[in-house]
Design goal:
five-stranded mixed beta sheet, 33% helix, 11 helices, globular, 24 strands, alpha+beta
């Protein structure tokens, strides 16, 4: 352990408990919390399991972990040869690629994971798995990891530094009480995510059905949609509470879907960004997941929004309805356009590679008709996403005041 105050060992009960209690506690709990380094309350699991012995549903990769503590989805693939890191139900899995994406999950089954997923197992005599999850699925931990991360384009956390993370824990009984409250909020968030999935499935079904049954389609090239443009550079660190409205690259995946009517971020460093206009189509230009996830354009329905990061934009021509074009590319032509993505570890999409691709587009009247039909469903989708934002804010405030 390092010799700094934050990372030192606390040897005696008196040292561990000194002046250690959160601002908000349940009635009846008065014992001081004890200070530890993360490495003292967890074991870092290295046991291997043969991929041959794993089903796809038992395998977790960085790509199958969802951002913003959203859980996991079924992985796209698993190698038939080689081994994976073994984990059991209750272990905490932390994606170590781009830690700022907040990919952390408490395992609900036994399985195996890729090398870039760290597996932490709670020492049961000190900490419960649900409480450990809330220590790690916490902005304070993510900030700490990023401060020690290595690499620029694809930062990775430092395992040794992570094990020195200073944390405080109460009695097991108080841990259970706190975890029960936070689990209630997590269940609300999960319910909203299921509602969002159903709405998105419905929207996709309507768009595809309308396209297949429309007899006014004509063939155009992607470049005929409008004028393409590149954008400036901004990062998450450049966001602020006040300033000009902005959208940064990562938000195209985590915050916005096919249509963006409300803007959630602001910045005072807008001189580094590009000013967009209402009706623009914004394309993410890189990912570490898979090629098809890159075909996720967002139709921007606000004037004067600064856009920046690894993306490109298209000023959509008045001949087309921007919202409909976004739905069309997201749900009908996503596989076609994904063929032009390049790369393995980091996958890139360049406008120059897709601009000559031929697509079919209905007449403007049909585009508007479909977009208007989608508007009500899109509003419900936006409301569901705002509810998740509210629940996440509520949980963040509780973590800030109920943890040390």
């Amino acid at each position: 352990m390092a010799d700094t105050e934050n990372n030192k060992n606390f040897n005696s009960p008196a040292e561990r408990a000194q002046g250690n209690a959160p601002a908000l506690r349940f009635p009846g709990f008065t014992e001081p919390w004890r200070k530890f380094a993360l490495g003292e309350i967890v074991s870092f699991e290295k046991k291997r399991i043969r991929n041959y012995d794993l089903r796809l549903t038992e395998y977790v990769s960085t790509d199958s972990m969802l951002a913003d503590f959203g859980g996991i989805r079924v992985a796209n693939r698993i190698s038939e040869t080689g081994t994976s890191t073994s984990f059991i139900k209750g272990d905490i899995l932390v994606s170590n690629i781009r830690p700022y994406l907040n990919k952390i999950w408490c395992a609900t089954f036994d399985g195996g994971c890729s090398p870039d997923v760290f597996v932490y197992r709670a020492k049961k005599e000190l900490v419960t798995s649900p409480f450990l999850y809330n220590i790690l699925a916490n902005n304070a931990f993510i900030t700490y990891v990023m401060n020690g991360a290595k690499g620029v384009k694809m930062p990775r956390g430092d395992k040794e530094q992570m094990m020195k993370y200073p944390c405080s824990i109460p009695t097991l009984q108080e841990q259970d009480k706190i975890s029960s409250l936070l689990q209630f909020i997590d269940e609300r968030i999960a319910t909203q995510r299921r509602s969002i999935d159903k709405l998105e499935t419905l929207i996709k079904g309507i768009v595809v059905s309308h396209f297949n049954n429309c007899n006014t389609k004509k063939s155009i090239a992607v470049k005929d949609l409008g004028e393409a443009y590149s954008v400036g550079n901004l990062s998450k660190d450049d966001l602020s509470e006040y300033g000009e409205q902005c959208i940064i690259y990562g938000e195209l995946f985590t915050t916005y879907g096919c249509v963006a009517r409300e803007i959630h971020s602001r910045t005072n460093k807008y001189s580094q960004a590009t000013l967009s206009r209402s009706g623009d189509l914004l394309f993410p230009a890189s990912t570490t997941v898979d090629a098809i996830s890159l075909i996720a354009p967002t139709s921007l329905q606000r004037d004067g929004v600064y856009v920046a990061g690894d993306m490109f934009g298209i000023h959509i021509s008045p001949q087309f309805n921007s919202e409909y074009i976004s739905y069309l590319l997201n749900y009908v032509y996503n596989k076609t356009l994904s063929k032009y993505a390049q790369g393995s570890t980091i996958i890139h999409l360049h406008y120059a590679d897709i601009k000559n691709t031929t697509i079919q587009v209905p007449c403007l009247e049909e585009q508007k008709k479909c977009a208007e039909l989608m508007e009500g469903l899109q509003t419900k989708l936006d409301v569901a996403k705002r509810l998740i934002d509210c629940y996440q804010l509520q949980k963040s405030n509780l973590l800030q005041h109920m943890f040390i």
